[in-house]
Design goal:
Elements: H1 3-10, E1 13-15, E2 24-25, E3 35-39, H2 42-50, E4 55-58, E5 68-71, H3 75-86, E6 95-96, E7 101-102, E8 107-108, E9 113-114, E10 119-120, E11 125-126, E12 131-132, E13 137-138, E14 143-144, E15 149-150, E16 155-156, E17 161-162, E18 167-168, E19 173-176, E20 181-184, E21 187-190, E22 196-199, E23 204-205, E24 210-212, E25 218-221, E26 226-227, E27 232-233, E28 244-245, E29 250-251, E30 256-257, E31 262-263, E32 268-269, E33 274-275, E34 280-281, E35 286-287, E36 296-298, E37 303-304, H4 305-339
Parallel strand pairs: 2-3, 3-4, 4-5, 6-9, 7-10, 8-11, 9-12, 10-13, 11-14, 12-15, 13-16, 14-17, 15-18, 16-19, 17-22, 18-23, 19-24, 22-25, 23-26, 24-27, 26-28, 27-29, 28-31, 29-32, 30-33, 31-34, 32-35, 34-36
Antiparallel strand pairs: 1-5, 20-21, 36-37
């Protein structure tokens, strides 16, 4: 593609040669002749100017250059849009691999791809241009929308519903048993988990993430939500739309998230809580309370951001405070001795001569 064609796709403008041919996209330190590179700030721009790249994707604040520039209003968004131009998703041929096992009652769209060693169980519906890449097990009565992709060894338990343009990465398990038990005469009796999971459109689920089906009813992952690797979402959890759930987060049962919630790495959330929309929870926090809309919480147990920061400052001051207390105690001891001196001992009689 030419710089002019890329600029048109990105809604930007070209400063330099609009007919310059671009063969690839690379960071400045590895860019070769014919490559487009990216410079979000002046430091990266200096590296881009010194590189072999043919053109640079920049924002409005970057100065003119001897290189051809593609100037856009929001360079990071443009960066996300330009990568698929040079690195498009693979296209998988329609059809069913000879090693796949597809039940006769399943409905597989003619344009769908079913890869090697997949199992497609009874009454499954697989949408147009969707792909099962290999080793996938799709349980009875699952529904998978259009343009959805299951990467190798991802598993859907029965009755899972997956929307359009969903990505479920390798090793993820959707619809496994919720963790429900009741103590009965000294034994943990399992509560049957008879619900299911609904994954709405444009969701991405990371590798080795697990999402449990509801005990009754649905566990729901809202439209546009992005879930990182190694996340555990328990039964009957409901997330709003466009949430960001980062690696190693654990959400206990029946908790509800609003829309645009961000849970940073290793956050733990207790069960039956409600987190409002646009809530942010900092890394390694333990949430034990409901959180209203728009608030930022930190710590374990988590509290509001301002309160948490005051606590952190106080903790860092503890060694100094401890030394001050030691000095004050010593001064008090000296004052006590000065105000209340100890009585003199009575003189001892002289020893009797032998």
């Amino acid at each position: 593609m030419t710089t002019g064609q890329v600029a048109e796709i990105l809604g930007g403008s070209v400063e330099g040669d609009p007919q310059l041919t671009l063969n690839g996209f690379a960071p400045a330190h590895t860019a070769r002749a014919g490559d487009l590179t990216f410079a979000e700030n002046e430091l990266y721009f200096a590296a881009a100017e010194a590189s072999s790249a043919a053109a640079v994707l920049v924002g409005p604040d970057i100065p003119a250059s001897k290189k051809t520039l593609i100037r856009v209003a929001q360079p990071r968004i443009a960066f996300a849009k330009v990568l698929p131009i040079f690195f498009p998703d693979p296209v998988y041929a329609p059809g069913i691999h000879p090693t796949a096992v597809v039940h006769p009652s399943a409905v597989v769209a003619p344009t769908a791809h079913v890869g090697p060693h997949c199992v497609v169980a009874e009454r499954v519906r697989l949408g147009a241009h969707s792909a099962l890449l290999g080793g996938n097990h799709v349980g009875d009565d699952c529904v998978i929308g259009d343009d959805t992709r299951l990467f190798p060894n991802a598993v859907l338990y029965p009755r899972t519903q997956v929307g359009h343009r969903v990505r479920i990465h390798a090793g993820a398990v959707v619809g496994s048993d919720g963790y429900g038990y009741v103590l009965d005469q000294g034994l943990h009796r399992k509560i049957p988990q008879v619900g299911f999971v609904v994954v709405q459109d444009d969701v991405e689920i990371g590798a080795n993430t697990t999402i449990d089906r509801g005990a009754l009813g649905a566990t729901l992952i809202g439209r546009g939500t992005k879930i990182d690797n190694l996340v555990q979402i328990a039964h009957n959890v409901v997330t709003g739309e466009h949430c960001l759930i980062i690696s190693q987060v654990g959400i206990a049962g029946s908790t509800r998230l609003g829309s645009y919630v961000t849970l940073a790495g290793q956050v733990g959330i207790a069960g039956h809580l409600k987190l409002g929309s646009r809530v942010t929870v900092g890394a390694q926090s333990g949430v034990m309370n409901h959180i209203p809309d728009g608030e930022k919480w930190l710590g374990s147990p988590a509290v509001q951001e301002k309160q948490a920061k005051r606590q952190y400052i106080a903790i860092h001051r503890l060694p100094d405070v401890s030394r001050q207390i030691d000095r004050m105690e010593e001064r008090l001891r000296q004052l006590e001795q000065a105000l209340h001196p100890a009585p003199h001992s009575a003189p001892q009689p002289p020893a009797t001569p032998p």
